[in-house]
Amino acid sequence: CRTSERKSRGSKAETWSRGAAKEKTLECGQIVWGLAFSAWPAAEDEDTDPACAMGLPCLVLATGLNDGQIKVWEVQTGHLLFSLLGHQDVVRDLSFAPNGSPILVSASRDKTLRVWDLSRDGRQVQVLSGHVQWVYCCSISPDCSMLCSAAGEKSALLWSMRSYTLIRRLEGHQSSVVSCDFSPDSALLVTASYDACVIMWDPYTGEQLRTLRHVPLHSTLDSSSEIHTSSLRSVCFSPEGLYLATVADDRLLRIWALELRSPVAFAPMTNGLCCMYFPHGGFIATGTRDGHVQFWTAPRVLSSLKHLCRKALRTFLTTYQVLALPIPRKLKEFLTYRTF
User: Which residues form a coiled coil (predicted)?
Assistant: First the structure.
């Protein structure tokens, strides 16, 4: 692998900080299937990013490759930090621990998940086996207590990030589960499937809280298409936890409000495969089969005081801890998302 750079042209680019703007390419020599960013503490290295030398976090990128390798890069310098070996097939997805610790989880077509500790020279600390199909997606809860994985099966698996053991199988879909994501407070988990449904779960109890069904809008469809038009490809939570975004094969990006069972916004798109909210909200990025990333304006909302309080409490209280509180039943239902 090697890094190449070229300076951008134009007077505006030349006025950017740190000189002219540059386009950086990390050339891995393999098809890149998965990406994950993380911010690390400053490194004591001559070639490190100047921001890191000033004590600011360094941006790190992990790339999952076609041959089963994982390469971890320092983004600003293009320096290759680690080449992680262990998977026997395509690395399909990657997830860093959200708390900033150098723990990386990888999901592969070899039907396993692997946990890597990058503070110990990229040591592989655990192999998680349990899937019988390719593993498409992995997601670590924001409190770093749980890991969810989705494969070409009708169930998703929920793992403990403390003991690296299986907590439970989440069963309810009628076809392959292909995407999963936790809410910002770790209190909810959503899974998307080829059965055209998103299921919202309580990850602590395994209870299904809500099902969002994707009904095709026939006016947007091409009748000659042979694709199962309502198959879902991706689902993700908004940063404040009040919206979901989904991408499906019916050529639509949908945005759902958490308390409603029907979408609040649609956007036409083709060949969609994945979606992700901008960390501060307001925008959604979608990736496509034809190699494009598109950006969409997303609804912005001012969170209610009730929701902010719930989010703050659920960040450190499990469902069982909430249910044990000496508070009214309706308040318990609200805090555990049984009512919205």
Answer: none
